[in-house]
């Protein structure tokens, strides 16, 4: 038995165009921080990239100009990483869609991105791994989207350590959880999607005045 769970507030819908604006208007004159460029290259080296979408990620390149990377327009620190695979509707052939997905492992070098506030790895194919426990150490994240990325296994309670998180989408993965107590640590959370997760053993659902919880 599986029990989807969706928590949402209307104002958070405004986040999506705001993120798009940031990506489309990133300051091209800002140079990235060397240590953060090295961290991103370590991250890339553990990925499988069939379509070579990360071809711009090169050793001596400016990571602020790499696909999917958004730097702060005054400090040069990486603060957004958006590597979602495209929708299947963008492709005429299944093989092209499948090859657009990143695979492989997620390197803990992401922890070196001390200013990272937004991470989107949705629609990729991480079918061999759990959601990394170290994500719980990305303490300033406000936006985490991992939907439809083929993660499996138990949801780590470490996600509850990301205390500034406002948006969390884990929907469409093969996940399970015996407890949702970790959600209580997310005091700023406005949107939570656990659809497709097996929650039939979780009888400690968290609900308060901040959230509208819908189970279906």
From TrEMBL:
Domain of life from the UniProt record: Eukaryota
UniProt keyword terms in alphabetical order: Glycoprotein, Leucine-rich repeat, Membrane, Receptor, Repeat, Signal, Transmembrane, Transmembrane helix
Topology versus the membrane: Single-pass type I membrane protein
Signal sequence residues: 1-20
Stored Pfam families: LRR_8 (PF13855), LRRNT_2 (PF08263)
UniProt cross-references to Gene3D superfamilies, sorted A to Z: Ribonuclease Inhibitor (3.80.10.10)
The Leucine-rich repeat-containing N-terminal plant-type domain, residue ranges: 34-71
Subcellular location: Membrane
Entry keyword Signal: yes
InterPro entries in the cross-refs: Leu-rich_rpt (IPR001611), LRR_dom_sf (IPR032675), LRR_N_plant-typ (IPR013210), RLP23-like (IPR046956)
SUPFAM superfamilies xrefs: L domain-like (SSF52058)
PANTHER family per record: LRR RECEPTOR-LIKE KINASE, LRR RECEPTOR-LIKE SERINE_THREONINE-PROTEIN KINASE FLS2
Protein name: Receptor-like protein EIX1
Lineage of origin: Eukaryota, Viridiplantae, Streptophyta, Embryophyta, Tracheophyta
Gene: LOC107962214
